[in-house]
Amino acid sequence: MKADPATQLRLLDLQALDSGLDRLAARRRDLPELAVIAERTKVIDSLRADIVRVETEISDLARGQRKLDDEIDLVRSRADRDRRRLDAGQVSNARELENLQSELASLARRQGVLEDEALEKMEAAEELDARLAKLVAERDRVQAELDSSAARRDEAFAEIDAQAAGTRKERETLAPVLPAPLVTLYERIRSTSNGVGAAKLVRRRCEGCHLELSGADLRTVAASPADEVVRCEECRRILVRTAESGI
Question: Where does the C4-type zinc ribbon domain start and stop, copy by copy (predicted)?
């Protein structure tokens, strides 16, 4: 393949633009904020699940407290009723009086047990409320970090995308003025060579694979016409000769 030396040098310009685009893509892909966002998102999801579990426990406990309060009210009402009968002297039979007093004692014991349970539930509710408040505060803290990281990510994306758009515009201007067969060869090599399709020959070294050409290869390159498109024997990239080539 033939291409005048100036055109081959322009191919290096195309390579520089493509390498710039690759670096921008890598920078966009590897932004530190992305790892932070992924980690904080996992933490947020875990905290939200914990909050739901605690809220469910609080709801279940509140339902149990209401049921317990209803039972305490029922016991108190029954005890009040029996006490009013006793105070009013409505019970004259000794056996019935004994039964009534026994029932009052039993109701008092039952009320004591229920009130102890209610106190335990109140303490448990306070612990759950404190735990929920702590979880919510932690969720809010992590959410703030997540929002901050997302804002930095979006700012970095906007900057990178703007640079990439400018670089692509330069590429779209340059590529069409180069010979189509040369660009096709360059693109084919670039797709299988880590994004580098053309490299300088600098001081007898290929800047694509960073290996020094052997004496025989160097002589072959030196003997090739200036408009001959030569390739590195090691990496098969297009090798562009410059004043720095050392030949």
Answer: 205-239
221 exposure class (CB count in 10 Å sphere: 0-12, 13-18, 19+):
buried
CB 37 within 8 A of CB 150: yes
Phi and psi of 111, rounded to 5°?
Answer: -60, -40
Q: What is the DSSP letter of 224?
A: S
Rounded Cα distance between 127 and 135, Å, is 12
pLDDT band at 188 (very low <50, low <70, confident <90, very high): very high
For 161-176, what is each residue's pLDDT tens digit?
Answer: 999 999 999 999 999 9
What single-letter DSSP state applies at residue 2? B
pLDDT in tens, 212-221: 999 999 999 9
- The region of weakest confidence among 33-42, 60-69, 85-94, 199-208 is 85-94
The domains located in the chain, with CATH, are 5-25+179-241 (no CATH), 31-168 (1.10.287.1700)
Kind and range of the H or E element at 106? helix 94-174
CA separation for the pair 103, 190 (Å, rounded)? 95
DSSP string covering 138-197: HHHHHHHHHHHHHHHHHHHHHHHHHHHHHHHHHHHHHGGGS-HHHHHHHHHHHHTTTT--
CB 17 within 8 A of CB 149: no
Q: Which of 148, 144, 179, 167 is nearest to 6 (CA)?
A: 179
Tokens coding 88 = 């009013």
Both tokens of 22, joined, read 């690759």
